[in-house]
Amino acid sequence: MKVLSYKDSEYTSFVATLDRRAIPEKGVEDLVSDIIANVKENGNQAVYEYTKKFDHLHLTDESLFVSADELAEAAASVDDDVKAAIEASRQNIHDFSRRSFRQNWSAENAQGVTFGERFTPYDRIAAYVPGGKAPLVSSALMTAAFAQAAGVKEIIAATPAGADGKVNPALLYALQQSGATEIIKVGGAQAIAALALGTQTVRPVEKIFGPGNSFVVEAKRQLVGAVSIDLLPGPSEVLIIADDSAVPEFIAADMLAQAEHGGDSIVGFVTTSDTLIAKVDAAIQDQLKSLSRANYMQTVLDNSTFCLQAKDLDEAMEICNAFAPEHLSLIVENEDSWLEKVKTAGAIYVGNMAAVAVGDFLAGPSHTLPTGGSGKSFSGIRADQFQRRTSIVRMDQAAVKKSVDHVETFARVEGLDAHGQSVRLRADA
Which residues hold Zn(2+) (predicted)? Predict the structure, then answer.
């Protein structure tokens, strides 16, 4: 772990590097651009070539989609406790969603025009679920179950299969329970391109949701316009801000849980205490002994974990807002007053008992959150992102007459006399 105090000479320069923007690397940008162009030109053939190259899986039109038999086999093989956990999470997601949907409304302006908004679910969306070292069952819920709660009719999920062509049974079961109507065995930028542009057998969607690696995130960024996206959720990260009121063992546990994501994950810890970092480090070493993926987590701890002793909590808040963490764990006295100072975190876990893992799996809000600094511009997945917004305007002649003078003024200023005439004709009718 990189450990620095505000008293250290390199502290200021390191903190400056934490002010991030989600800007892609040139190599990633170029490769993804080539993949998108190939899929656009060659459809399924390109998708199958990339799947063979990156996932070592030979797909055909017959094996691209998960079959009904595969879904039935998966459901039969999933243990009851896993099914119960999936259902508990799904119910919490639906409950959270019901409280955050945007509602239709209407009102009347000063000229008597009735205006309002109407919100309707998308017809067809995609839920991307990453592959990797572990089956991300919770990610299936944290995307598809929100679409299900919103009433989206068609939910196509994309997730890479193993070299044997199989998708984890619990993941398939979670997708099925979350309303997935189709599932394709494809991951990476080629999946995003297929979902956005369509192929010979994959119909394009209206919006794509879900996290992924840097290539998936870049594909989503490049395809905006061809399709709508949720946000830019890449490799996972956590920032913990704590003072002497924090329990070192809890901080260590959350840092290790984050390190378990591996890959490009980032683990950050900022404290005002001059003794807490040492206590947390000791707790990490002690807890590592009993964890099955200790070597895997140690790599993240060595390569992408930082611990900072800040001068005070005001400085810690500045670091947080510059870093824009996906997950923020805030463990300080007078927590509500400090909570108000947080502007850019994707999700905030407040207090010693607020375990990030509960939010990841069960609590209700989606764990698909902005990463890489994109929290400055994006929010995490929420229920209203699955709704289209449409404005509605109604007026009678009295409202037109009250509006015409102002409209004609705008029309004159902008040189658009036909606009003014279209209103004057109605006012004088």
Answer: 258, 261, 360, 419
